[in-house]
Amino acid sequence: MTNMTAAHSPLSSDLLIALQHQFTDRCSTSKSVREHHGTDESFYDAMPPDLVVYAQSTAEVASIMQLCHSYNTPVIAYGAGSSLEGHVLAIHGGVCIDLSQMNRVIAVHPEDLTATVQAGVTRKQINLEIKDSGLFFPIDPGADATLGGMSATRASGTNAVRYGTMRENVLALTVVCADGSVIKTGTRAKKSAAGYDLTRLFVGSEGTLGIITEVTVKLYPLPEAISAAVCSFPSTAAAVQSVIQIMQLGVPVARVEFIDTSGVQAINAYSKLALPVQPLLLFEFHGSVNGVREQAELVQEIARDNGSADFEWATHPEDRSRLWTARHNAYFALLQLRPGSRAISTDCCVPISHLAECILETQIDCDKHGLIYTIIGHVGDGNFHVLMLVDPNNPTEIANAEAVNQRMVNRAIAMDGTCTGEHGVGLHKMEFLIQEHGAPAINVMRSIKQTLDPKNLLNPGKIIHWDVVLEE
Amino acid sequence: MTNMTAAHSPLSSDLLIALQHQFTDRCSTSKSVREHHGTDESFYDAMPPDLVVYAQSTAEVASIMQLCHSYNTPVIAYGAGSSLEGHVLAIHGGVCIDLSQMNRVIAVHPEDLTATVQAGVTRKQINLEIKDSGLFFPIDPGADATLGGMSATRASGTNAVRYGTMRENVLALTVVCADGSVIKTGTRAKKSAAGYDLTRLFVGSEGTLGIITEVTVKLYPLPEAISAAVCSFPSTAAAVQSVIQIMQLGVPVARVEFIDTSGVQAINAYSKLALPVQPLLLFEFHGSVNGVREQAELVQEIARDNGSADFEWATHPEDRSRLWTARHNAYFALLQLRPGSRAISTDCCVPISHLAECILETQIDCDKHGLIYTIIGHVGDGNFHVLMLVDPNNPTEIANAEAVNQRMVNRAIAMDGTCTGEHGVGLHKMEFLIQEHGAPAINVMRSIKQTLDPKNLLNPGKIIHWDVVLEE
């Protein structure tokens, strides 16, 4: 895709020697290691950093940052590499700090429903480690991302409709700033009115304001009862209309996912399921035994009024797990629909009253332009993704898909929505961000970036253009 | 109390003339109006601004701000004057913008569960205006505060345990910046990963980074069933222990308030109630009829295991309303315990496992120093207030109370809690803030303040010291 190469100075040999001296075999200049760290799940070609260092503590990250600060060298934090918008690409070279070895759960406080972990702990790891406490951490952005990365991109996923996103679930962060100083942004208190909300400022800042090295998150008691169900609808509109009515009634569904017909086909083929090939909703209910039954009855009634088929229940944990694994693998399932293709993912989020309209107009646009695509959505939040399969060697096809994406973003913004519900900005959405927020707000963001990172060393070239002051 | 007078230049007569010309009778230099606007519910004596202007639109606020910016004149936003830490005191003089005439509900979107209001709309007003929609806005910081003020102080109150605080419930803001430019910080989408979270940065910034002129908030469906109950306990420890167990089980209580014995006495006398004179918890349950019954049974069982008396139920709306009005009037009730006194309010919030310990140690300290006080708390969040009655003419008494407060803050911070759960920093907690966050984080806050308000015009002298860089 777009060649993102930017002129940048090579890594200073003094810096290289200093880091190699300190980190020995946790320091790599190998081409394959660098290429791996210059790649994410997005459409972009690799943009490798000059050096990869594996840090094991906040102090080590601070020490790397201090060195890079004195050598004016860019620094990019790397977790699981599962970001989707080019977040980790080293477009100005520099040092990549791999945080995957910072994988220690520092403290679990079951009585307070909190845990503090190093940034490299993944969502599956934390859930495994707290399994016996009767608690769980709900945020699940498909991939087994790290909690540091999920904080940095303000991730969410299927459970967000009930439990919120990383915005609502991070209590405090430890952050290494541009000059190597270390701050703590909060405490374990459930709420606070103590000064500027630095926690929320760093959540979603994609490594451009500081490097998150520790995360304190909220945990939740495992519900007494969980049940999941699949339900087919005659049309996208009927499925989405059901969701709108469910949300308006305040039914506390834990998950409600939309999958369109082609998505169902892809998932059936990839995950060996036999879901009815129609638009469908995937529900999960959490609560007491009676509460779950009550929610399910209410939701079935609404769905039936919108012409749905009967619910197919998955009450056994293994059936539920198979269903959600299939959902989480939708991205990979889709890729199989067109061998050799790559996927361009989109990520709009609109007020739910506009959701059906936004999805339907987007479907029409995709069909009109002959795209191979599927739409899946965290529809309880008004968030959906169009996954478009393109031939990576066909620039016309790519331009076509990007144009559909641009029109979808226009549509979402006109409906008072956002260009990204959960994937973040990275490289891919910098122009959309300007369109969404407008020049004055972008200028405020830029001034914050310039203050907290005056040398433009922290994941430079992402989220906002460093030196372009927009005319207001 | 402390004399907060700071040297400041008188208002420029040119600026005065310009504002009087534009705002005519919505512009006042009268002593009583100025004194009213230089006072909040805190312990501080009035520090009047030089001028009060009543704005009616974002454009008017922007126009005032532009003028004040060019005349280097401080600007303080004023809503209902119900802040508790000296937030609105004009310690450097300047112009107070009274936003109470910005009291228009701009749009209600019942289908999306959102409303957008001008900053001067109060929490009671919005609930009145949406009464027929089947929705409500839950955040209730006792006073009938404005939504602008509540956003600016990151307010919460009794419903926060279930519905969150202003941090979780503001979707977007319109903000007038220091130079008079206007930004929108978000959309009506329920979630977004689009750039730095400016919404959360301004929520809780107490008018020091910009002036909030419009607020988009989340609304909630009125629950099908609501019931409230009062329950007495043999001791503070037993009451708090019950709350800890309830939270750990994940019971979605809508409200759970603690009132100590002296608080019950004060409320009984002030609100003509006959609550048993023992530590008590006040519960409210929201949900379906069955859900409420189930929650109530579970909670009663836990309370009983901790030695509680039976629940006294208030199922009729008028009984419930009387109970919650009594709770909200606790502050005024308490003042009656000692005619002529004034109250110093504290506002710690700790991880819930430390709550009993924190309250008990604080009670011992208060008793040891002969204070007249009561403790009330939003205990589901780990948040409690000690209201200490002091003779405003007795400096020893005041110093004594402040020393107890200081020790309580030390205690809360040592327990990984915060010096303010919901009241904010204002003037009163600036030193506590440093203690809580440490020098590096405070320096980050200061750099943000200096960037967004380079002339130090926005509510100067609050939250952080403008020019004191702390040694790291």
Over all CA atoms, what is the radius of gyration of chain A? 22 Å
User: Based on helices, strands and strand pairing, what is the structural class of chain A?
Assistant: alpha+beta
**Major beta-sheet overview of chain A:** 8 strands, antiparallel
Measured as a percent range, the helix fraction of chain A is 25-40%
The share of residues in extended strands of chain A comes to 15-25%
Which oligomeric form is depicted?
homodimer
Mean pLDDT of chain A: 95
In the CATH hierarchy, the third-tier topology of one domain in chain A is known as: Uridine Diphospho-n-acetylenolpyruvylglucosamine Reductase, domain 3
Which consecutive residue ranges of chain A, at least 5 long each, have pLDDT under 50?
A: 1-6
Second-tier CATH architecture of one domain in chain A = 2-Layer Sandwich
Shape of chain A: globular
CATH class of one domain in chain A: Alpha Beta
Distance between the termini of chain A: 32 Å
What is the number of helices of chain A?
A: 17
Number of DSSP strand runs of chain A: 19
Chain pair forming the biggest interface: A-B, 94 and 94 residues
Could you give the topology of this structure?
The structure is a homodimer of 472-residue chains.
Chain A: H1 13-23, E1 27-28, H2 31-37, E2 51-54, H3 58-70, E3 75-78, E4 95-98, E5 105-109, E6 114-118, H4 123-129, E7 135-136, H5 147-153, H6 160-163, H7 166-169, E8 170-176, E9 182-184, H8 198-202, E10 211-218, E11 220-221, E12 225-232, H9 236-248, E13 255-259, H10 261-271, E14 280-287, H11 289-305, E15 312-314, H12 317-328, H13 330-335, E16 342-345, E17 348-349, H14 355-368, E18 372-378, E19 383-390, H15 395-414, H16 430-437, H17 439-452
Parallel strand pairs in A: 2-4, 3-4
Antiparallel strand pairs in A: 1-2, 5-6, 6-10, 7-11, 8-9, 8-10, 12-14, 12-15, 13-14, 13-18, 16-19, 17-19, 18-19
GO molecular function, one term (chains A, B): D-lactate dehydrogenase (cytochrome) activity
Family (chains A, B): Belongs to the FAD-binding oxidoreductase/transferase type 4 family.
EC number (chains A, B): 1.1.2.4
